[in-house]
Write a structure and sequence with these properties.
Layout: E1 2-10, H1 15-29, E2 35-36, E3 40-42, E4 52-61, H2 65-79, E5 94-100, E6 105-106, E7 111-112, H3 121-130, H4 143-149, E8 155-157
Antiparallel strand pairs: 1-4, 1-5, 2-4, 3-4, 3-8, 6-7
Helix pairs in contact: 1-2, 3-4
Length: about 160
């Protein structure tokens, strides 16, 4: 069984509803109840136009990493995401595989830990909330240091419920 960290985000349509739908569908993939961070709102990164709602979930699965990635893409499509959106474009839902136990995985279609998570406050703050002692499995940098080193953006915890 693997402990997997999944980052979620939405900046189109009913963002809150999209995250709640993703949470319900992620729960179906987990053999234990999932843990969900608070929901955070952040400014978009890159040319995206609208603020994001973001959160992090911890699931436990017996699926292989490639199979879980396929399931995450399927959840995105079920919620209404276009199959191959433009990078940084607005999106109904985005599910990113951040970490898989303490493994480092690199294949043609999957890199774990996620190659950009360490610089994204919209992943780091919710991750810190769930896993305050988190260390990157590759370089062993702790989450507080990653937060300190990440580019500053406007981000704040909301009072939205799952």
């Amino acid at each position: 069984m693997a402990k997997v960290i999944v980052a979620t985000g939405s900046n189109l349509g009913n963002r809150h509803d999209h995250l709640k739908q993703a949470g319900k569908l992620l729960n179906r993939l987990s053999i234990r109840p999932i843990r969900k961070s608070s929901i955070w709102e952040s400014d978009p990164v890159g040319p995206a136009l609208y603020p994001f709602l973001n959160a992090v979930c911890v699931i436990h699965t017996e699926l292989a990493p490639d199979e879980l990635l396929k399931q995450l893409k399927s959840i995105e499509e079920q919620i209404g995401r276009n199959k191959n959106p433009e990078r940084w474009a607005p999106r109904i839902i985005d599910l990113d595989l951040i970490a898989w136990n303490d493994l480092a995985i690199q294949s043609d279609n999957l890199i774990i830990p996620h190659p950009e998570y360490h610089s994204r406050l919209f992943v780091l703050y919710p991750l810190q909330e769930l896993c305050p002692n988190w260390k990157d499995p590759v370089n062993r940098i702790d989450i507080d240091t990653m937060i300190h080193n990440a580019s500053d953006i406007r981000i704040e915890k909301t009072d939205l419920e799952w």
